[in-house]
Amino acid sequence: MRRARIIYNPTSGREAFKKHLPEVLEKLEIAGYETSCHATTCEGDAREAALEAVRREFDVVIAVGGDGTLNEVVAGISQCDKRPKLGLIPMGTTNDFARAVHIPRNVEDALDIIIAGDTIPVDVGILNEDRYFINIAAGGRITELTYEVPSKMKTLLGQMAYYLKAIEMIPSIKATHMRIEMDEEVFEGNAMMFLCGLTNSVGGFEKIAPDASINDGLFTVMILKECNIADFIRIASLALRGEHLSDERLIYRKASRVSVTSEQEVHLNLDGEYGGDAPAKFQNLKRHIEVFAPIDDLREIDK
Ligand SMILES: Nc1ncnc2c1ncn2[C@@H]1O[C@H](COP(=O)(O)OP(=O)(O)OP(=O)(O)O)[C@@H](O)[C@H]1O
């Protein structure tokens, strides 16, 4: 019998997962999985639990929570040589990665995808050889937004909490002088932000990197050069519609290795959480993890 380990954040998704747990366990049992669970208690716990699941040779690890929990589970399994397959039941506010691989935000439907058993290989990003991300790495003042929103506010307001925080932060957004190497190319100058994306979805903006492939071994790198606040807002609203790519203030490239240095302080954002400060070396680990996903919906992705 195959063995599955569920790692869930009991506080995410308005604490809704617990009531689904008996039905989830029963369905997995019927599908041929002997399943056990771990409820996370604090930051970092999902990473340890995932690492422990690898040591105990589980065939499948199922991450239940938001992008933060998913990031920790990915970090736990990515550092191992023999990696279990990864299932995902999204319960967070934004669920960028789940959107990118077409996993619905409904417990039963997401579980059905795991039970159907199809997987796709996905790229994983690694920062400075010891931190991992599956969706995005970023830097620049505005990218601090995601971890400055208190989780109580997210529970109460959902996505609106991020919009309100963005409005509050706008006056403090400023450019930082950075040197960014993208494979052979170098940008040096003042930038509002940079993004190093693995998927097409960032902060719920699903058209921000329209040509991103989740398993081509390349990051989509975006650098927004220094601009005034009015232009910043204009480019952000173009990005909502996927019409930002031709803007002259935006550098848009593909690269498998990216490094960022600055004489100023640059906080890094990894999958929405604070991930330390620059200098940063990002590397794309091509097709590092197998993720359960609805492959019929993802035909355009090279399997
Ligand atoms: N029992 C817990 N109590 C408080 N915090 C926890 C607990 N378990 C995990 N965490 C922390 O909460 C962080 C955020 O959780 P998660 O991403 O699952 O949910 P979310 O904040 O609701 O979703 P999103 O990030 O999509 O808005 C995790 O990165 C983890 O560090």
UniProtKB/TrEMBL annotation:
* Pfam families assigned: DAGK_cat, YegS_C
The entry lists its GO molecular-function terms as: kinase activity
Q: Could you say which cofactors this protein requires?
A: Mg(2+)
Q: Which UniProt keywords apply?
A: ATP-binding, Kinase, Lipid biosynthesis, Lipid metabolism, Magnesium, Metal-binding, Nucleotide-binding, Phospholipid biosynthesis, Phospholipid metabolism, Transferase
Q: Which InterPro entries match?
A: ATP-NAD_kinase_N, Diacylglycerol/lipid_kinase, Diacylglycerol_kinase_cat_dom, Lipid_Phosphate_FormReg, NAD/diacylglycerol_kinase_sf, YegS/DAGK_C
Q: Which residues form the DAGKc domain?
A: 1-130
Instruction: Give a yes or no for keyword Isomerase in this entry.
Output: no
List, alphabetically, the SUPFAM superfamilies matched: NAD kinase/diacylglycerol kinase-like
Q: Which NCBIfam families match?
A: PRK13055.1 (NF009603), PRK13337.1 (NF009874), YegS/Rv2252/BmrU family lipid kinase (TIGR00147)
| Record family assignment | Belongs to the diacylglycerol/lipid kinase family.
Q: What is this protein called?
A: Diacylglycerol kinase
Question: What is the protein's species of origin?
Answer: Solibacillus faecavium
